[in-house]
Amino acid sequence: MSASEIVRGLTFGVVSDWATTLGLIFGGCCSNALSLEHLTRSHPHSGSLITFAQFVLISLHGLPKFVVFAPRAHPPPSSPSARPPWWRRLSPSLLLPVRVPRLRARRTPLAPYLAQVALFYGVSLLNNAAFAYAIPMPVHIVFRSGGLVVSMLMGWLLAGKRYNVTQVLSVLLVTAGVVLTTLSASTPTRDKSASPSASASEGAADPGVGDMLASERWRYATGIALLTLALVLSGLLGIAQDWTYARYVRGPSTARESKDGHASAQSNGRANGHANGHMDAHANGAVKKRAEEPSGSVEPWQESMFYLHFLSLPMFLFVRHDLAAQARALRASPPLHLALPLPASLAASLSRALTLYPPIGLSRPILDIDSS
Questions:
Q1: Strands (E), the chain
Q2: How far is CA 33 from CA 13, 174, 213, 255, 354, in A?
Q3: DSSP conformation letters of 20-37
Q4: Is the pLDDT assigned to residue 102 strictly greater than 60?
Q5: Cβ of 42: how many Cβ atoms within 10 Å?
Q6: Which residue has the higher pLDDT, 105 or 338?
Q7: What's the whole-number average pLDDT of the chain?
Q8: Is 273 left (phi over 0), alpha (psi -120 to 50) or beta?
């Protein structure tokens, strides 16, 4: 292989990686932020419905990975002389294997997930409910970066963590930017074009305008208070997740592998020497660790994400009336018009493909695509 081919291959790999990264950022994150801003601007009280849709979609996406179909286990007979039921005495060729769906074996028990589910449910609802209090999307995104200082404080107070001067200064710098961004958006839009003295004189001349400005500022402060509470709950969620990961994912496996390796090293070291025993210890420990893991196991973060969303679904029963009202409001809203440079036939086909019908309650297209 020539040098030019190597350079061309490396260049293609770098360009491909960057294209994928930028496509996911601008095609996924940015488009999601724009869609969310448009939806919350038209329907500011749709936070609960957005949260519910998010939890349902992530749960459905994870079900194929966490639901397995295993043969149904028959209980053993009560005594050796007891005869099994007649359907179990039939010929095996006449019986079809019965496979029952069940959840895949977990690394972490369900009990540690309960507190995390409650915290995660509250954080998600509060973050989306803040849109009903005139919180702009840039402020919403930037303010959530303020969780750094909350996580640092809780890690220091609750987990006994220590941070160096560089880390503290970096977090304080980010927090100062978050505070400045939050304060810059606290002034209502109608006041930004006027000077402070003109706004004050207008409020003094018309008491109704002053009351309206004070009401909008109070509304904005309420939204910031919801986001602040969400940051505190998110910090507690991070502490709970760190404790769970250290105990059930990182800690037991490391300790078990070390214990198995030490025992194997002692048994093999007497016969083959310390070097061979040390090498066999790591091999035996790794084999046993792989044998204990369930077949087709998933990553710990995938398990945590699935159970945090899946176990939170029953909690939406408490806001079912709110969800129904928000769904009716979305159903009564006009279609969304998108001007795309597409041929008329392709635009009509795409509009029909994006049409949603019952049972979710939409009887007409949610997208009305216009061809240019």
A1: 67-71, 99-103, 336-340, 367-371
A2: 29, 21, 28, 43, 20
A3: HHHHHIIIIIIHHHHHHH
A4: yes
A5: 13
A6: 105
A7: 74
A8: left
Whole-angstrom distance, CA of residue 18 vs CA of residue 13: 9
Query: pLDDT tens across 145-189, in order?
Result: 888 888 889 888 888 889 999 999 999 999 999 999 888 887 765
pLDDT digits (tens, 9 = 90+) for 140-153: 888 888 888 888 89
Average pLDDT over residues 224-244: 92
Are 153 and 235 in contact, with CB atoms under 8 Å apart? yes
Measured between alpha carbons, how far is residue 45 from residues 53, 122, 184, 218 in Å? 14, 16, 24, 17
**Residue 59 has which token pair?**
């749960």
Residues in the chain: 372
C-alpha to C-alpha distance for 30 and 140, rounded to whole angstroms: 14
Whether the CB-CB separation of 367 and 351 falls below 8 Å is answered with: yes
Q: Give the rounded percent of residues in the chain with a pLDDT score beyond 90.
A: 20
- Both tokens of residue 224? 């910031």
| Dist CA 39 CA 51 (whole Å) | 13
